[in-house]
């Protein structure tokens, strides 16, 4: 099998996440895309919803996802980072664990071109780049070929990078969604699966404290 590993905060999961994963799977003939939500204790991430809320939203978002050519679900989700010990688990460890789980399959870490310039600075970046393969999505303002050419580590392992130069223009910012909800605005339709939106409203996620009912009002 050819498997894509799609890591993100998914805070919340949006239709852009699903569209991106499906488009990459179609263009690179992936048999499976595994969504890997990052833990809320990561020092490099400012998350707004906790692990369990984001996990539930992700599960809801992919539950009616597309099928692969074999008729099996194309989308899966993994708690590999959510359940890891905080401060000791990084992308290299995630990819190594998947490699152990799928020793006979081809694995690809899915990332945006905006992450490419600093990839060598990631914890265990040298090992990650040399030992694993990547599918990199184009982002406006980032020349992927030039970034790789100017970086000795990336240039040395350039065959590990599969560059998608165009065709993934859809952009729905999770940050935008959080800010709209925080201000009490109604979200336009089609930003996220309806089940995810319903979950957010039911659990009153991303709302400003002033918009939440008081304890007295809840009685």
From TrEMBL:
Residues 5-179 form the Cytidyltransferase-like domain. It is an enzyme of class 2 (transferase). GO terms for biological process: NAD+ biosynthetic process. Its EC number is 2.7.7.18. Catalyzes the reversible adenylation of nicotinate mononucleotide (NaMN) to nicotinic acid adenine dinucleotide (NaAD). Pathway: Cofactor biosynthesis; NAD(+) biosynthesis; deamido-NAD(+) from nicotinate D-ribonucleotide: step 1/1. It comes from Paenibacillus aquistagni. Keywords: ATP-binding, NAD, Nucleotide-binding, Nucleotidyltransferase, Pyridine nucleotide biosynthesis, Transferase. One of its GO terms (molecular function) is ATP binding. CDD domains: NMNAT. Belongs to the NadD family. The lineage of its organism: Bacteria, Bacillati, Bacillota, Bacilli, Bacillales. It catalyses: nicotinate beta-D-ribonucleotide + ATP + H(+) = deamido-NAD(+) + diphosphate. This is Probable nicotinate-nucleotide adenylyltransferase.
């Amino acid at each position: 099998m050819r498997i894509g590993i799609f890591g993100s905060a998914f805070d919340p999961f949006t239709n852009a996440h699903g569209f991106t994963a499906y488009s990459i799977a179609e263009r690179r003939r992936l048999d499976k895309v595994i969504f890997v939500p990052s833990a809320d204790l990561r020092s490099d991430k400012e998350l707004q919803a906790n692990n369990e809320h984001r996990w539930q939203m992700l599960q809801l978002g992919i539950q009616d996802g597309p099928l692969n050519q074999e008729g099996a679900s194309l989308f899966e989700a993994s708690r590999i980072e959510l359940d890891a010990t905080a401060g000791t688990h990084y992308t290299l460890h995630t990819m190594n664990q998947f490699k152990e789980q799928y020793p006979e399959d081809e694995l690809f870490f899915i990332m945006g071109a905006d992450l490419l310039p600093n990839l060598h600075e990631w914890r265990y970046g040298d090992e990650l780049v040399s030992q694993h393969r990547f599918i990199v999505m184009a982002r406006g303002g980032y020349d992927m070929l030039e970034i790789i050419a100017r970086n000795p580590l990336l240039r040395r392992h350039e065959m590990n990078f599969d560059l998608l130069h165009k065709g993934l223009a859809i952009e729905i910012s999770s940050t935008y969604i959080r800010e709209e909800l925080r201000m009490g605005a109604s979200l336009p339709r089609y930003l996220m699966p309806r089940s995810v939106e319903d979950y957010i409203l039911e659990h009153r996620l991303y709302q400003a404290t002033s918009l939440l009912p008081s304890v007295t009002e809840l009685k």
